[in-house]
Amino acid sequence: MRFRSLTLTIIVVNLVSILTGQQLPMGVPETVGLSSKRLERIGQVIRADVDNGRMPGAVIAIARRGKLVYYEAFGFLDKAAGIKMRKDAIFWIASMTKPIVAVGALMLYEQNRLLINDSVSTYLPILRNMRVATIRRDSTGADIFATEPAIRPPTLQDLMRHTSGMVHGNAKGNELERRYNDLPDSSGTIFLQALSRLPLYSQPGTEWTYGYGFDVLGLVIEAVTKEPLSEYLEHELFKPLGMTNTSFWISPTKLARLAKPLQPQDSSIPTQRPSFESGGGGAFSTATDYLRFSMMLLNKGRLGSTRILSRKTVEYMTANQIGPEVNVDRLRSFPNINGYGFGLGVAVRESYGIPGIMGSPGDYHWAGSGGTYFWVDPKEDLAVVFLAVTPGQARLHYRQVITSLVLQAIDD
Hints:
single chain, 412 residues, alpha+beta, eight-stranded antiparallel beta sheet, two-stranded antiparallel sheet
């Protein structure tokens, strides 16, 4: 009986090793201060929502004190086809690409190949002398646009903390927002040409406006390294961390592992390198791949024997970069980050109270519009990755649900 139990344990550990690409340290929840019984509430909630048609399924991976202690798949990979979710499912991680690209830029910063306070136009001259929109309304209520000089050029720091003025478009917004919404993405060159013809939405460094900063930052990385963004990240970040299923496209051999939403979407899935690799939202990944990335950040730039960033660089990245001179009204519109500041690619919590979700001062996170979410809590020595395909308002709901379900399981 003891032999059979040991054999089963070895099989489970080896299976996880296969799924994760290389071994991650395993642990039992109770050995790291988590309650297995309370963690069961995660599955109860997700299974109920799958049964009720609120979501197709999800994969969640939780690491605490350096050990992977919870790794489960729920529901369906493709509900319409009746295909069950698998732990190695691949998800479009959308804006969870941004922290990855921030790390890519910070690696170049450590090598003195770029400086955070440099103007964007230092690397992309086409964006030199950008002007800023001024908007007023005439007697009929119509928007009248003019421009004024920028008080200073946007910097790489502005790109990474969303204070560049390069706002995301809104098809139902004002004329300028609609023009940003229609920016072409057939190639990086065409994107930059169109962007250079638009005025900034706000003065650099004065307003938090979620935008195209990381798409531009990806092009900065390409200008510095003289190679495609995906190639640079592959040999400098993905391969060293063992992120074997993270890329800007899905090879045909892996398409069967792509998680699908409840309702079919029109977006096509790239099966080869796209002409424009969006640093703001173009990557695909798996739960354990992104957990490796998260654990590297939690460990201050190191995963196992692999050093990606220095401790001081991670501390800088995950510190609040928003000063009192910055208007944060738009930052407050996200329910799970109302009360947070913002670092370089991640929202950063500053107190136990104020935000409408539990957490610790210094925890940081970001999410993707398709339903993906990750967070790191250094005080609790905790890293969590939640991957689902729940676009729209549902994604905001699950960011809050998963946070509370994981943190309520702490029992130490």
